[in-house]
Write a structure and sequence with these properties.
Elements (H helix, E strand, L loop, with lengths): L2 E5 L5 E5 L4 H10 L7 E4 L5 H12 L3 E4 L3 E5 L7 E2 L1 H4 L9 H8 L1 E5 L12 H8 L4 E5 L2 E5 L8 E3 L5 H11 L5 E5 L5 H12 L3 E6 L2 E5 L7 E4 L4 H13 L3 E5 L7 H9 L3 E4 L3 E5 L8 E3 L11 H9 L5 E4 L10 H6 L4 E4 L2 E4 L9 E3 L3 H12 L4 E5 L2 H4 L5 H7 L3 E5 L1
Helix pairs in contact: 1-2, 1-7, 4-6, 5-6, 6-7, 8-10, 10-12
Length: about 425
């Protein structure tokens, strides 16, 4: 099994080109099921989760090929409404095909999702919302068996709590429902806005009527569409934190800085120097990192997907810091490994209390989930020895060419068998 070997004490310098967003690409790929016209997608990241979603679409009959710039999807022969456990087991986004399959065929059999072990992530919010569009369902042997006897019918749906996945599933499903759907208490992450923009390109009728409310008029005709996926704000945030933690000097390119303003403001408060241009961020890390208390929250709050990376940074701060995790209930699995490297982090419920002033020591480490694994890379970059990170298939699910990108900016890192 492959590992990452990291030799520490590197101040990262240079330019980083940020890839397309994994979290925007997955629902957009699911939404292509709605159409039997050609879809051209640009700026898809080359990561394992995208490969898995493409294989899932192919298994259901989608014809997919790529040229130098586009992934070209043609669904004119797509006729299967079954999403196999073998494909869905490695990523939670597999459940996003449920809405479009029901919209297109009126029935679906979709495996309950897998992915990172960072909380239960129940699909009940998805299912209860879909039932208001006329869906009847049962769960049997690890599969959701769903049917819409009269097709999907527009309705008013208020999400009991903000859920990115449920919002995405219902937006896609309602786009072909009969009549009008009003969704309220929606998640409004930039990736959801990207999905809405893609659906508009296909000829769907969606309109934001307030900050977290969306009006969707069902259509029965879709157009051929070409769309460029937004940048990956989590990858951008990870490299910003990498610069801050290594006293680096990086230019982060191909980004929209307004979409990671919260994280930029946090990094300024802890002492990093940051200059923002239209599609570029220049960050210079600092020797003395200031402590700060943080809480994860739905966008525009601090992204839960950057919590582990921020924790590594706060381990180096001058005083005690606290991070409160408000999105997932089991997202501190990186703490044990960071403590093995010399951190002093205490978990109290959904709070991590971080002592600060940590000098990380090199170690052999075990990745437990996607963002936890990259936090171990960041910590290893600050040490004076050789660290080995195991189970890096987690990293490959969401970071494109991470070791190559890090090598280009001065990191001593390589993939080994």
């Amino acid at each position: 099994m492959q590992k990452l070997e990291v030799l520490g004490a590197a101040k990262l310098k240079g330019n980083v080109n940020i890839s397309g967003s994994k979290n925007a690409s997955l629902p957009i790929l699911a939404a292509t099921i709605l159409s039997n016209k050609k879809i051209f997608l640009k700026n898809l990241p080359k990561v394992k989760d995208i490969e898995t979603m493409i294989n899932l679409l192919k298994s259901m009959g989608s014809q997919i090929k790529s040229d130098k710039k586009n992934l070209i999807i043609n669904n004119y022969k797509q006729n299967k409404n079954f999403a196999s456990y073998n494909l869905v087991k490695t990523m939670r986004a597999g459940i996003l095909v449920l809405g479009p399959l029901l919209a297109k065929f009126g029935r679906a059999k979709v495996s309950l999702p897998g992915g990172c072990a960072i909380g239960t992530r129940p699909v009940d919010i998805h299912l209860k919302a879909l039932s208001k569009l006329g869906v009847k369902y049962k769960i049997s042997q690890g599969y959701v068996h769903a049917i819409a006897p009269k097709g999907l019918i527009g309705s008013k749906i208020h999400f009991p709590k903000i859920s990115v996945g449920a919002t995405e599933n219902l937006i896609i499903a309602a786009s072909l429902a009969k009549g009008t759907t009003f969704l309220s208490n929606c998640a409004i992450e930039p990736e959801i806005k990207d999905l809405v923009n893609f659906l508009l390109k296909m000829g769907c009728k969606l309109k934001w009527v307030s900050k977290r409310s969306l009006k969707i008029e069902g259509v029965n005709y879709l157009e051929e569409a070409s769309y460029t996926i937004m940048f990956d704000r989590i990858e951008a945030g990870t490299y910003l934190i990498a610069a801050a933690v290594t006293e680096g000097n990086l230019k982060i390119k191909n980004v929209n800085p307004t979409l990671i303003k919260t994280e930029i403001d946090i990094l300024k408060k802890i002492g990093a120097k940051i200059k923002v241009k239209r599609n570029e961020i220049h960050i210079i890390g600092c020797k003395k990192i200031k402590s700060i208390n943080l809480k994860t929250a739905p966008w525009p709050g601090l992204a839960t997907d950057l919590q582990a990376q921020m924790m590594v940074l706060l381990c180096k701060a001058n005083k005690k810091s606290i991070i409160q995790e408000n999105i997932f209930e089991n997202r501190f699995m990186h703490v044990a490994e960071l403590n093995r490297m010399g951190a002093k982090i205490l978990i109290n419920g959904n709070k991590a209390i971080i002592d600060g002033n940590t000098e990380f020591a090199a170690a052999e480490l075990m990745a437990t989930d996607l963002r936890a694994s990259v936090s171990l890379v960041l910590a290893a970059l600050t040490t004076k020895g050789k660290s080995l990170i195991n189970r890096i298939y987690h990293l490959d699910r969401g970071y494109e060419n991470i070791e190559k990108k890090l090598q280009k900016i001065g990191a001593k890192i390589r993939r080994v068998n």
